[in-house]
Amino acid sequence: MPKVDVYDIEGKKVKSIDLKEEVFGIEPNEAVVHSVLINYQANQRQGTQSTKTRSEVSGGGRKPWRQKGTGRARQGSIRAPHWVGGGVALGPKPRSYNYTVNKKERRLAIKSMLSSKVLEKELIVVDKLDLKEIKTKEMARILNNIKAEGKTVILLPEKNDTVQKSARNIEGVKTLQVGTINVYDLLKYKNLVVTEETVKKLEEVYA
């Protein structure tokens, strides 16, 4: 059973807690993590790219020259794909890139990433994250105290405007809630800062 130290916002160790093996102590499955990551990125695509076909560009209603007798190749329209200013053949059109992956795969990918954070010692647990007011400087001080250096994602058990607004202007720091956790951000950000309450919520949801 994995064990981690818990710190207060001053960076002092207050205790150690045991983490559930089935959430924070599994063998990370890289294949599933990759599959879910590709799915997440595909679902983020807008799919709004578009080119005009020969029927959509203007002009070209008249045959440019007669069929025979000019010595030139026969042409039916100046808006055919091989003409400058013509339509695009087989170009991209608006479409959806969305597809779904198995729910069990998504859960396994999240658990794999959480377990990986524990293995790499990139999981930082604080007893609580209560700020009296919205203050970026105070949040930066707390992150410095708990040695969350580099890109950091703060995972909250639920919406907390004070914490979220205090962290939003710090470069390389992002806040998420347990309900919005995703593989992409867990891979992108090095440190994962969680509270004891967040750990309990994750164990409730993913155990």
Relevant terms:
207 residues; alpha/beta; six-stranded mixed beta sheet; elongated
Strand percentage: 5-15%
List how many beta strands DSSP finds. 6
Based on secondary structure, the structural category is alpha/beta
Helices, by number, come to: 7
The unreliable regions are none
Overall average residue pLDDT: 93
Give the helices and strands, then pairings.
Layout: E1 3-7, E2 13-18, H1 21-24, H2 30-44, H3 103-119, E3 123-126, H4 136-145, E4 152-156, H5 161-167, E5 173-177, H6 183-188, E6 191-195, H7 196-206
Parallel strand pairs: 1-3, 3-6, 4-5, 4-6
Antiparallel strand pairs: 1-2
Helix pairs in contact: 2-3, 4-5
Any overview of this molecule?
By secondary structure, the protein is an alpha/beta fold. The protein is 34% helix and 14% strand. It contains 7 helices and 6 strands. It has helices spanning 21-24, 30-44, 103-119, 136-145, 161-167, 183-188, 196-206; strands at 3-7, 13-18, 123-126, 152-156, 173-177, 191-195. It has a 6-stranded mixed sheet with strand order 2-1-3-6-4-5. A hairpin with a 5-residue loop joins strand 1 (3-7) and strand 2 (13-18). It is elongated, with a radius of gyration of 27 Å. The mean pLDDT is 93.
